[in-house]
């Protein structure tokens, strides 16, 4: 197995060589069961190692500066898909993760704005997902960028809420439109933990935030997400990630 240094060198050429692609996982409405959105997930198919763990890939990209090129690739793929959906009369929303390093770069928000204007797309059709650790580590640098993006009309989601240190009270300064509950929380069977989670969902709704339950793997997890009051759900029970070609015309859920 190549060491980290070797993988970093490989990542530098992976985009050029077509090893990186976006896969898309549907999110369904817990009220209707219909697909309302998909999340773009970055995948690296290494020629000798096969699938590289996404967390490893992101760490390497951030440490080597490739994250800007990688993030631009993912955003462009998402916008291409939104254009395809518009041409086919489909109005699903699309979510994609962004790194704090992308957000600190003043050019990122400008690029998002320019691309939406050039393509004639509605910014509200895109949600940018940030990780829970973000507001604790980079608030002073990142929050102003998030506010600019929110003013444009782009949605802002806090991913894996509850997995780290943040609480809704500590996130008041973030211009959020959505929180995503971490899978392990939704899969919990602890009544006290689920009770606390239900309260968090209620507070999120009071603040006008959409709540998405991720990591749904069984019917019981899905029922728990509904009982908690979540708006949307995502996970292997519903659908595994699909290549872009499979979701351009729509995709069925399991």
Automatic annotation (TrEMBL):
<dbReference type="InterPro" id="IPR035919">
    <property type="entry name" value="EAL_sf"/>
</dbReference>
<dbReference type="InterPro" id="IPR050706">
    <property type="entry name" value="Cyclic-di-GMP_PDE-like"/>
</dbReference>
<protein>
    <recommendedName>
        <fullName>EAL domain-containing protein</fullName>
    </recommendedName>
</protein>
<dbReference type="InterPro" id="IPR001633">
    <property type="entry name" value="EAL_dom"/>
</dbReference>
<dbReference type="Pfam" id="PF00563">
    <property type="entry name" value="EAL"/>
</dbReference>
<feature type="domain" description="EAL">
    <location>
        <begin position="4"/>
        <end position="254"/>
    </location>
</feature>
